[in-house]
Structures are given as structure tokens and as C-alpha cells.
Automatic annotation (TrEMBL):
Gene3D superfamilies: TolB, C-terminal domain. Residues 1-19 form the signal peptide. SUPFAM superfamilies: Calcium-dependent phosphotriesterase (SSF63829). Keywords: Hydrolase, Signal. This is Gluconolactonase. It comes from Sphingobacterium cellulitidis. The lineage of its organism: Bacteria, Pseudomonadati, Bacteroidota, Sphingobacteriia, Sphingobacteriales. Residues 72-336 form the SMP-30/Gluconolactonase/LRE-like region domain. PANTHER family: LACTONASE DRP35, LIPOPROTEIN-RELATED. One of its GO terms (molecular function) is hydrolase activity. Pfam families: SGL (PF08450).
Length: 346
């Protein structure tokens, strides 16, 4: 499939009419004419549901389209050491790299299943994170594991691939606790038969797991139908799990105990209650330093404050699976076949 980087450059003033005819975006030079400022196609709107939203994003902010040509873009993570974004295409089995300087490139291919043949429809990686040691940690659908990847050599190794000797379903999203433990969700979306898989599925539950420094997995949640996005509060005390479940479109909250196990869950947010006219459920979730949650749902991101109140929406116009904060001040969105971003205030 053709990958199209949205990078057309248009020089300011006298050169404005000389835009690259094969591109859809514009680029203008700055005042001293020494640097090119890229301009990307604009789309979407910001919906303010509470004045608190205006402390996070300008009401007139628009989403920028950076690249397209993916099949199912997922799991973005910003890499500070290099100032670039990595994200998965679960179906093309590629981890992509995007930067302002170099645009879109393939970072690892194949990212997950390495053959022979085809394993499943979504056999690549999904959720990504940069751990405390600077390694890329990947939820690997195709190999049913959590993989550890050296960013320089791109060498992969298995962090964990089983619980009690049984292979995971298809690890989906992951976060790391301040103490170094990982928590990840394990729904069946990467299995050959997905929800109806009976031949390759080894664990009955679609669980949530904790993994310690030794690579030992503990099942900490077993009663969720479709656990998906996962994030830990800034103080390290609460674990949030998004359910991509049309019947129970909740974001659940769990207190994290001293031993890393969890309290009984409670509903933090109910999409059906808050948006009854829409069929929304969260996929990926992230949380800023103030405890505001950014939940990818429907055609963008729903912003929820620390009390569980929706304060606004970033409407990208494209179904959005996940998002990631970056030190360049943008929120990056993986939206079906597109990579998008929007400028935040903090």
C-alpha cells in the first residue's frame, strides 16, 4: 500500500505559487528565511464541554494530518532521545517512525509475527512504551508476548510470553509503574479467530497482568470481557483500564496495593451514560500530569478530568484508536489509516 507523507513545502511570499503539485499541504519560510516551517492539512474541531478544557487546548485548535497509508495505526509513543514518534500498524506488521525532520519511515518490519505465512489479521505490534531504561517495550500480537527492543540495534527479546505456562492471547496495551512493574491488557483481538478463537487461545480469561523485574507475570484482573487501553495515575496509586465493550463501555479504576495487586474495581467513566446518543467506547487512554485522561473514542479523543467528568473532545473526524503526549507540545493521534496531531497548551 502506498504510504503518503503529508509534507509538501511552499515557500513564503514570492515563491508561494511554486508549491509542490503532488502534495496537499503548504510550507512557509520564517522571517529570516533560514528555516522551513511545515504546514499540514487541517481538520477537525475542539468541543468545549467545561471551561477547564481551555486550560488544556485552545478552542480554535485544529488537528493536523501528518501521514496516511496505514491500515490500522495504533500504540504511539514519543521518543525523547531523538525527538521522534514510533507507532504500530497492527495489520501491516510494521512499527513506523515519524519526525518533523525526516517524515515517515519504516522503523521495524516485520514488527511482530515473522512467518512463515500469515498468523492473523492483526499480527503486528500494538501498544508501545519507552521504559525507564530507554528500551522500547512492545505488545506483540503475532508472538503473543511482551517484547523488549533496543532502539539502536532493533534487536528483540522476550520480556514475558506466558502466565502459568499458558501463552497470552494477544497483549494489547501496556504501562509502567514508578516502581518498574508493568501492567498490560490481553484481549483476543490478535488471535486468528479473535473473540471466537477456540483453537489457539490457551487462557480462558481476557486478563490484565502485572509483570515484575524478573519477567514473572501475575494475573491481576480476570473478569473483564474486552480490556484494552491501560494507564497509571501520576501518583502511581491507581490503575485505569478501558473496556472496548459496547455493552459495558466503561473505564475502570483500581487502587494499586503495596504488593502490586489491585483492589476491587469501580467505574470511573461510563460512555453510555455520558454520551447516550453515541455508541462510544474507549480504546487507548493516556493521562497528563494533572490527572486529566485522554481517551481515544469514536472520531477523536474525549478529555476527562480527575473526577471522571468529561470536559471536552478533540474531534479529528477519523476513528481514533490511541494517542500519545510528546515533549514538543503536541498530542499525537493514531487514527485508522492516518497519523495526526494537535497542539496542547501544557
Amino acid at each position: 500500500m502506498r504510504k503518503t507523507l503529508i509534507h509538501a513545502l511552499v515557500f513564503s511570499s514570492v515563491l508561494a505559487s511554486c508549491a509542490n503539485s503532488t502534495s496537499q499541504s503548504n510550507t512557509n519560510t520564517n522571517a529570516d528565511s533560514t528555516k522551513l516551517v511545515k504546514e499540514y492539512p487541517k481538520m477537525g474541531t475542539v468541543e468545549v464541554l467545561d471551561p477547564a478544557m481551555l486550560a488544556i487546548i485552545d478552542s480554535t485548535a485544529q488537528v493536523e494530518k501528518l501521514a496516511d497509508g496505514m491500515t490500522w495505526a495504533e500504540g504511539p509513543v514519543w521518543v525523547n532521545d531523538g525527538n521522534f514518534l514510533l507507532y504500530s500498524d497492527t495489520r501491516q506488521n510494521i512499527i513506523y517512525q515519524w519526525s518533523e525532520a525526516n517524515g515517515l519511515q519504516e522503523f521495524i518490519k516485520p514488527a511482530g509475527f515473522e512467518g512463515p505465512g500469515t498468523y492473523s489479521e492483526e499480527q503486528g505490534t500494538n501498544g508501545l512504551l519507552i521504559n525507564k531504561e530507554g528500551y522500547l517495550i512492545a505488545c506483540d500480537h503475532g508472538n503473543r508476548r511482551i517484547a523488549k527492543i533496543d532502539l539502536k540495534t532493533k534487536k528483540k527479546e522476550t520480556l514475558v510470553d506466558n502466565w502459568q505456562g499458558k501463552k497470552f492471547n494477544s497483549p494489547n496495551d501496556i504501562c509502567q509503574h514508578p516502581n518498574g512493574d508493568y501492567y498490560f491488557t490481553d484481549p483476543p483481538y490478535g488471535l486468528p479467530g479473535r473473540e471466537n478463537d477456540t483453537e489457539t487461545k490457551e487462557i480462558a480469561e481476557n486478563g490484565v497482568y502485572k509483570v515484575n523485574a524478573k519477567g514473572e507475570a501475575t494475573q491481576v484482573i480476570s473478569n473483564l470481557a474486552r480490556p484494552n487501553g491501560i494507564v497509571i495515575s501520576p501518583d502511581g496509586k491507581t490503575l485505569f483500564v478501558a473496556l472496548s465493550d459496547g455493552n459495558n463501555p466503561f473505564i475502570m479504576a483500581y487502587d494499586i496495593k503495596e504488593d502490586g495487586l489491585l483492589s476491587k474495581g469501580r467505574i470511573f467513566f461510563d460512555f453510555k451514560k455520558q454520551f447516550p446518543a453515541e455508541s462510544l467506547a474507549a480504546d487507548g487512554i493516556k493521562m497528563d500530569k494533572n490527572g486529566n485522561m485522554f481517551a481515544a473514542a469514536g472520531d477523536g479523543v474525549v478529555v476527562i478530568n480527575s473526577s471522571g467528568k468529561p470536559i471536552g473532545r478533540i474531534r479529528s473526524t477519523v476513528h481514533t484508536a490511541n494517542c500519545a503526549f510528546a515533549t514538543d507540545g503536541y498530542l499525537y493521534l493514531t487514527s485508522t489509516d492516518q497519523l495526526l496531531r494537535v497542539k496542547l497548551k501544557n
